[in-house]
Every structure is written in structure tokens, then in C-alpha cells.
């Protein structure tokens, strides 16, 4: 593998953990991309995507996003957010999406391009704990110097509100770009997503050390 990449420095070799949950550090040290799963159920992918940085660095872990023509807007957003704190692998029937649906996908890619290089130096953490396979709410945060990128998913939880134990100086919405604010930020960050299977990607500005 190393000799191959020495001969062809522009070649991108992708490892794949699909099906057997195989990811070892000997392989990861020799490939730039690790495909994390071949799971195509968009409601299950968030648990995989959120837990992936326990093994694979965010800039190396590739998550497939499968927007489909029968998805409503929120389901497309839910699908795209799952890939936006890793390396986006985009698939699905993109050729059958409406113009509006394509705009949602395009917006996700454009937002992702504004911060993707920062992920290489980011440190992941899990404000709601390490994700469980059946958790109703999931969260993944990537700390990048004075800002944090936070993905939050509501899956099948009956609770529309989740308290995320973070106290940022400020919060802004990254994606979806035109959605209404979904948070309050008093003593803790409270996220409200009225409908199941919805997600948001936020940018948090962190307080200086020593300040709450």
C-alpha cells in the first residue's frame, strides 16, 4: 500500500468497514478515507456517524448521505446532517430530486466547504454521551479552537426538547440555512425540534477559558 501511494501520490485509496464494523489503526494509518457503513436507512445512520470518531478521525471517516425523491425537506436535512461532521459521500437518486430538493443538498455541500478543513484539527466529544443504537436524541460536537460544530438529531424520541450540557458564548445555525432558530442558550443549550427525525447543524462560539 505504501509503495503504491509513493508511485501514485495523487491516488486516493479508500478503506471500507461496511457490514463487519472493521476499522483498525494499521489500515487507517495508510489510507486517507475510511467508508464507515453501507447502511442505507437514514434513521439509523446518525448513531453510526455520531459514534464514528471514537475510532476514525472526522476528516477520515466517510458517511454516505442518500437523499431520495420521496423525502420531505426535513428528511433530506436529517440525511445530510449525518454526513456533515465527517467526509460526505453523496449518493441516492440525485437525478430524480426536484429543483428544491437539489437546492437543499447543494446548500449542505456549500456550508460543508466553509469549515471542512477545520475538522482535521478538531477534537470530537459527545455532549449527550457516547451514542447508543436506539437513542432518541444524539449529539456530536467537534471542537475547533474557539468554535465548536455541533450536530443534533432527534430520532424517534417523544420529547421535542433536549438539554445539551454546553454553555457557548453564542450559537448560530449552519444548516439548514433558512430554518428558524431551534435553541435557547441560558445556563445550558436547549434544543427544540418539534418533529421526529429532524436534525440541525450549529456553530457554537466558545467562551474564553475561565469564563462560564
UniProtKB/TrEMBL annotation:
InterPro entries on file: Aldolase_TIM (IPR013785), GH (IPR017853)
SUPFAM superfamilies: (Trans)glycosidases (SSF51445)
Source taxon at top rank: Bacteria
Protein name: Alpha-galactosidase
